[in-house]
Give the backbone structure.
Amino acid sequence: MNPAVLLLALSLSASSEQGADSLRASRVTALRQTAVAPPSDTVRMFRLRTGGDLADALRGSGALMVKDFGGIGGLKTVNVRSLGSAHTGVFLDGIAVEDAQNMQVDFGRFSTDDLRAVEVYNGQKSGRLMSAKEYGSASAVYLETARPARNRTVLRIRGGSFGTVNPSFTREQMLGGKTALRLSASALRSSGKYRFHLSRYLEGEDGLLRGYDTVMVRQNGDVSRVQAEGQLFGSVRGGDWQVLGSFQSLERGFPGPVVRRPSVFPLSAERQEDRSGFVQGLFRKSVSDRYAIALRGKAEDSRTHYSTHPELNPAALPYDNRYHQQSAYLSAAHLLSVGERLSFHLATDLQYNRLKADILQFADPSRLTFFGAGGADLDLGELRLSGSLLYTAAYDRFRKQAGGFSLENSFRDAWTPSLILCLEPLEGTVLTAFAKRSCRLPSFNDLYYTLVGNSRLRPEDALQFGAGIRSSVPLGSGWTLGGRAEAFANRVTDKIIAVPTANQFRWTMYNIGKVGILGTDLVFDLRREGPVEAGLSARYTFQKALDRSNPGSLTYGDQIPYIPVHSGSLTLDLKWKGLTAESVTVLTGKRYSSSANIPDYAVDPWMTTDLRLACTFPLRKERVLTLRMNLNNLLGRQYEIVQGYPMPGFNVMGSAEFAF
Amino acid sequence: MKWKTLLVFSGILVCAATGCRKDPIVDPLPVVSEDEDLAGESVTVGETGFFTKLFVLNEGKMGTNNATLDFFRFANGKYVRNAFDRMNPSQALGLGDVGNDIKICDGKIWAVINNSGLVEVMDAFNEKHIATIPVRTPRNIAFDGNYAYVTSYAGAFVNYQADYTVGEHLICKGRVYKINRSSYAVVDSVDVGYQPEGIAWYDGRLYVANSGGLSYAVTYQYESTVSVIDAGSFKPIGTVEVAPNLKEVFADPDGNIYVTSLGDYYMNHSGIFSFRPGDTKATRVRTEGMNCNVTCAALSTRPGNPAVPGNEVFVIGTEEEWNWDPAADKNYYLFSVSGGNKVTRYSSFRYDGSVPYGLCAAMEGSGLKYLFVGDAVDYVNPGAVSCYAAGDGFKRVWSTTSGVDPGHFCLY
C-alpha cells in the first residue's frame, strides 16, 4: 500500500472512533492539501482525544523533544532535531500561532479535544496554497480542527491527579447545506501539587553509600484556565472558508527550580496571568482549472501580567510587569497550474506586531514583517519536486531612550530557499530528500529587554539537510509492516544566546552560538487492520548536536544542553469493538544541563510508560458515551526533563464524554 | 498467531520498563568521615605552611543549587573540591543555591547562601555542619564580639510610585539582621537602603554598602550611600555619600573604610572610595595614569591564630570594563590601597585567566606573599583558582579547576 494512502487510511480509521461523522467527501476535495512529501509524523486521533494537552499528545513522536518543566501549568516547548524551540512553527488551521515577545509557543496551552489532526513536519511542508510564513519555519506542527458533519453536542468531564477538574462542552450545528458552526467552551482547574522524591547518594571509601532521600511536594503550580471558541465553516463553489474566534484566560503559578531553602520560605511565588483573544479566517477557492487562491487573516490581542510577588518570596527579583501584545496578519497565496505536471506558487504575507509593557524606559517595540515566497512544484508521477524561495524582511520601530539602542539596526532581512524531492520507485516505497535554509527573527525580548537586550542582533540561521526512505509491505491477513529511516544534518549559526559580559550583573544577548547537528531517525511499524486492530511502533533517534561556537572553549565539541544522543519510544495499541488501549513508553538517554559535558551536569536518563484506555458505549439514537482513563508514568519513576524541575510520579486522569 | 505476537510485544515492553537503571547517582568524589581523608588534587609543592586552609566558596549558577565549598590545604599543597557535600552527605540539597559570602569567626565558617535564604555555619576544622540560620535573601556578613550581622534584600515594603509611565510597584528596602553567635538566633534587624551588599564592623559601628541593583528596574537609579549603624543600639545613625551601585566595604585596623562601586555601566566607572568614621562623603581613590577601576577586591589577611585583617586593600581592575564584547581580551591591572588613598601599582602582575571574579591576598609580615584569584571563565561552567607568588614577580604558582564562579575566599 502506498504509505501516503496508508497514513490517510490511518487517520481516517482513527477518526472513525468519533463515529461515522467526520467529513470525508466534500466539495473541497479539489483543494485538499496534497503534500509532495508526507508528514514526518501524524498523531493518532485516539491520542488527541485522551491526552490532556498538545504536549501530551506529542510525547514519543520521533525526533521531537518535548521540554517540560513539570506539572499541568509548567511550560512545555517542542524542539525538533535540536534546532531550538524557537524554530518550531505551530499552525492552527493553516495560520501561525506565535508570540513575538519570546518566539516560543507553550504547547501546554492547547487542548486537543476539538482537533481532527496533528501533523509534524521535521523539515519543510509542501502543501498547496501555503502562506509565505509556512515556508519560514524550520519545522512545523500543524493542528487542524474538526469540521462539523451533523448536529451534535459533546459534554466532557475530565479529572484526576493534582486536583484537576476539566469540564468542556462542544456544540456542532449545521446551518443550511453549506455552513456549519462549532461552539466550544472549557474550564480547567488544578492545584498542580504533586509529591516527588529527591535523593542523592555519595559513595564512601569504605564502599558504603551515604546520602539523603526525601519527599517534597511541588507548590505554587496551580492553574486555572477558561477557554471559549466559535468557528464557522462554509463552502462556496470550488472552495471553502472558515472563521475562528477564540478567547483564553489562563492564570497559573510557576513552582520554580528545586533548590535548598528553609521550610519557612517558599520556593517560588511567581504568578502569571494571560488573557488573549484572536480572530482568524481562511478562504480558499479554485477560480479555474488553472488558478486557485487562498486568503488568510488574523488579529490578536494578548495581555500578560507577570509577578514574582516579592512580598511572599523576598528571595525573588522584584518583578511586577504587565505586557500587552497586539498583532495583525494578512496573507494571499496563489497557485497556477501549467498543464498536469507543473504548478507555480506565490504567497505574500504581511505581519504587524506590537509589544507594550509598564516597565520604565521600555522600548515599546513594534515590527512590520513582510514574507514573500515563490516557487514551483513538478509532479512526474514517480518523481515529485518542489522548490521555493522565501524572502523575509522585518522593520522594527521602538522608543529610542531605552539603554541607548540605536535605530540603525532596525531592518533585518533574509533569503531562505528550500528544495524537496520525493521519489516513489516502487509501490509502497518513498524516498525523500530536502534541503532548507530558514531563519528566525530575534524576539522582542532578545532585542529590547531592559539591560539584557541587544538591538544589533541578526536573525538566527538554520540550514537543514535530510534524506530518508519509508516503505511498507503487506504481510497478509490484515498485517502491514512499515519502516522509515532518515538521516539529517543541520547547522545553526548566529544562534542567539545570553552571555554575561564584563560582569555577572550584565547579561546581554549575542549572535555567537553555532551548533552542528547530525542524526538519524528510525521507525519500525507493524499494524493490523480488521476486527481486532493492533499496532506496534518503535522509534529510535540518534542525535549529535555539538557546540561549535568557540574553538578552544571548554564547551567546544560537546553536546548542547538537554539533547540526548539516544532517545526513542515504543507504542503499542489495540482496538477491539469499543475498547481501545494504547501504551506509550518514552526513553531518553543521558543528557547534560550545560554545554560542558562533565559529570556535574549530567542529567539522568529516564523512561516513562503511559497507559491509555478508552471504552465506547453506543446508546440509542446515535448517542455515544465514552469513558477514558490515562495511567501516566505507570511505574512511578522519578525523573527530570529539565534539571531542578522534578516531574510527577504515577498519576491518573479519567474522563467521561457524552455525545448526542 | 496475532495474540502470540502481542504477547511478545508486551514482553518487550515489560523488559524495557524494568530494565531501566535503578542505581542511585553516585558522585565520583568519595565521602569520608575525617577531613584529613578528603582526597584532593596536588597543586603545589615546596614551602607552604603559614595558614592552615584557604576556603573557596563557589557561587554556582542561580537556580541550579550548585554552590560548593572547596579548600586548599597549605600543609600538603592539595586542593579539595566540594568539601561540604562530602563531609555532610546526608544534608539534603547540599550547600544550596548561590553562595555569596564566606567568613571565619572563632574557628567556624559562616557561609551566606543567597538564593537558599540561609547562613550555614560549619566547623572550619572539618567542614561539618553546625547550624543553619534562615535569613531571607542574605548577602554578606560581618562580626563583632558576640554577634554576626547579615545584610539582606528583604526589608520593609514600600509602594514606589514612579514619575510617569510606571504604575505602582512594591519594592523592598534592605535590612541588616543581627544574629547571636552562640545561639544562632536572629535577635534584631534594622532597615537600610535598597539591596545592601557588603558590610564591615569598625569601632562599634556597622558600615553597609547599598546598591539599588534590583530597585533600579523601578526607580531607574542606583543607591549611592553607605548606611552607618550603631552596633550597640542597632539604630541607623547616618549615611555616607559615595557613588552609584556599591558593592563591598572593608575596614582596616587603622579606621580607614573602603567602599567599592560597580558604577552604572554607562556614565560612572567602577572604583574604590575611602572615608574615615564620622565623614559624610567618601573620596575616590585614584592615581595618575590609572582610573583605578574595580573588577574584584579584597582586604589583605595576615597569618595568626585566628588570621587577622591586614591594612591594605588589593584590587584587580581594567580600563576596558565597558567593552561588552564577550570575546574581548582585556588588560587587567593589580593595585593596592593603604592609608586611605595611597595607591601601589604592581606592574609585574599579568592576569592570564579569563574573568577575575574573586580575590584573596595572603600577607606574610608586612608584605604580600600570595595572591589567589578566582576565575569565573564563562560564569556558568566550572571556573579556576590560581595562586600567584608576589615575591617572584607574580609568577603563577598553581592553577586548578574549582566549582562554578569561585567568587569568595577566606583564610584559616
In short: Chain A is about 5% helix and 60% strand.
